[in-house]
Amino acid sequence: MRVRVLGCSGGCAPGKAPSCYLLDRGVAVDAGALATSLTIEEQRAVEHVFLTHAHWDHVRDLPISVINRTMETPTLQIYGLPDTVEDMRTHLMNDRVWFSAFDLPTPASPFIAATPMNAGETRECNGYRITGISMPHTVPAIGYLIDDGSDSVIISADTGGGGIFADLPQDISPLRAVFLETSFPNAMREFADLTGHLTAEMLGEEVACLPDEVEIIATHMKPGFEEQITAELMALGRTHLRAAKDGDVFEF
Ligand SMILES: [Zn+2]
Ligand SMILES: [Zn+2]
Predict the structure, then answer these.
(1) Per residue in 79-119, pLDDT tens?
(2) pTM to 2 decimal places
(3) Residue 20: which domain range?
(4) How far is CA 164 from CA 48, 169, 180, in A?
(5) Residue 96: alpha-carbon gap to chain centroid
(6) Which end of the chain is more exposed for a tag (fewer CB within 10 A), N or C?
(7) What pLDDT digit, counting tens, does each position of 19-51 carry?
(8) How many domains does the chain have?
(9) Per DSSP, what are the bridge partners of residue 76?
């Protein structure tokens, strides 16, 4: 499986794009950089987007990517918790801040369509089995366990943690990697708790239940804190742990 990091920052600045991960086979997780990091042709080749939650940094490019499609481009299918897909319809593409791409150009063949899914549910999608994993955050959020039949990876949502990997499904291909946020350095623990995010130390606690050979890929660092957070992550002493950066391509 190949995971191309289009954006993995916890903020936004030149060279730091918000959350967006592109898999092979026209599937993406989150849409923070879905338009600004892909050519028009690449955007039109994306068929399915799994949203972790409704926060702006995870959906930012969704409206723009929709207008880069044509009448002939197949409907973009988005997935997410019922609250998340409803938020896209009522707060984002609601005919006020943006046109209603769920109903145009025709209700029968719109630019975008939504399929709600809950944690614990699995969707078959272009050869992947994609299962929602509950991720406590300040709004409803799920991460995704993606199984291509040979290997599995988890792309997490924003989360304050709390045993999120303690109860993973057993009938999956070997777990190779976990993408997990580390928004703040350890000294900002109080702010991390307040905003439903992890520090480096908290990431260590969440992944302690995973075998050491599983690669931990840290994401969503707040701009300006990357060096400090990375140093604190390295101090955890875990063998396979690294920080992601935009443009990285991981093969599993
Ligand atoms: Zn975020
Ligand atoms: Zn969030």
Answers:
(1) 999 999 999 999 999 999 999 999 998 999 999 999 999 99
(2) 0.97
(3) 2-251
(4) 25, 12, 11
(5) 26
(6) C
(7) 999 999 999 999 999 999 999 999 999 999 999
(8) 1
(9) 112
| Residue 114, helix vs strand vs coil | strand
The Cα–Cα gap between 204 and 198 comes to 10
Whole-number Å distance, alpha carbon 108 to ligand 1 midpoint, is: 33
pLDDT in tens, 168-209: 999 999 999 999 999 999 999 999 999 999 999 999 999 999
Spatial CA neighbour of 130 closest among 109, 157, 112, 148: 148
The Å distance, Cα 49 to ligand 1 centre, comes to 16
Q: Which H/E stretch holds residue 132?
A: strand 128-134
Q: What angle do CA 199, 50, 193 make, to 5 degrees?
A: 20
Q: Which of 133, 183, 173, 128 is nearest to 156 (CA)?
A: 133
Q: Which ligand is nearest to the CA of 222?
A: 1
Distances in Å between the Cα of 49 and the Cα atoms of 113, 199, 207, 245, 250 are: 10, 27, 26, 21, 19
Distance between CA atoms of 202 and 211, rounded to whole angstroms? 17
Coil, strand or helix at 15: coil
Residue 50: which CATH number? 3.60.15.10
- Angstrom distance (rounded) from CA 148 to CA 43: 22
pLDDT, one tens digit per residue, over 211-243 is 999 999 999 999 999 999 999 999 999 999 999
Note the ligand closest to the C-alpha atom of 58.
1
* Alpha helices (H) along 53-170: 56-59, 62-67, 82-87
